[in-house]
Amino acid sequence: MNPYDILEIRVGATADEIKASYHRLAKMWHPDRFNGPQKDEAESKFRSISEAFNVLKDPERRSWAEEEFANVPSVLGSSQPLAAAPPQTKSSTVERTPDEWFQDSMRAFKDLDTERAQGLVQFAIRQNPDKADYHLFLAKLLETKGSDRRAVIKCYEAALKLQPKDVETMLRLAEHFQAIGMQARAMTLVQKAREISPNHKLLRKMGIAQMSVPEGESKGKGIKSLGDLGHQTKALFNKILRRG
Asked: In a 3-state reduction of DSSP, which class is residue 147?
């Protein structure tokens, strides 16, 4: 299917027209707006829209598309996957890998297109949920958008499950647990981070690295709340999470 039909624009559309149509359709078919079987359909449409935009935003590939589809009857509104691609781009004629979708997501984020970036990395995660980097990047996107904190927590938890000794992820997750009042879980993560890497740069920066467990608490028992650490330790804990 030709990219102009997918983006519902005429052959020869300007770069601004291409971008405007892409944003309209990407917002309309963003997978986060759907549930159940409709979500699968939305993801398929969103992927087609993203592929079409990838073709037309590149001047060389757009030039090819204009020549290729100049005399092809328009069927605006169709959202089938692209059936053709520029001959000079061999990889575009085959199924893209999760890493390629992820790289495209990072480029979209760099261009300040957070909605597109989110949709692309979510598709990468659906293709391969075993990449911690994908989950961490989605967490970053959701934080940038000010999304629901529990959605961010879910991303960090998925990443930590894949990389259980990642101290930085532990501290980020602890920050969000603290913010929603789950103090015990937050402090458990901080304590675990100190046990794994007592001289980690984030802990060392704020002086927490060498801080001992409060008197009366055994290493195995763990820290129950921020109050267990006392006012000074609590202040340092807050600082490291805010600045880390």
From this structure: coil
Does the domain formed by 1-94 have CATH 1.10.287.110? yes
Please name the amino acid found at residue 111.
Answer: D
pLDDT tens sequence across 127-145: 899 999 999 999 999 999 8
Judge contact between 180 and 174, C-beta under 8 A: no
- For CATH 1.25.40.10, list the domain ranges present in the chain: 101-164
Listed in order, the ranges of the chain carrying CATH 1.10.287.110 are 1-94
Q: What are phi and psi of 139, to 5 degrees?
A: -60, -45
Query: Tokens 């970036």 sit at which residue?
Result: 117
Query: Interior CA angle at 215 toward 194 and 203, to 5°?
Result: 20
Element (H, E) at 176: helix 167-179
> Which strand (E) or helix (H) includes residue 213?
none
Give the type of residue at 180: I
**Rounded alpha-carbon distances, angstroms, from residue 59 to 12, 18, 64, 175:** 12, 12, 9, 44
Note the pLDDT tens digit of each residue in 61-92.
888 888 777 766 554 433 333 333 333 333 33
**What SS3 string covers 112-133?**
CCHHHHHHHHHHHHHHCCCCHH
Please give the CATH topology (third level) of the domain spanning 101-164: 1.25.40
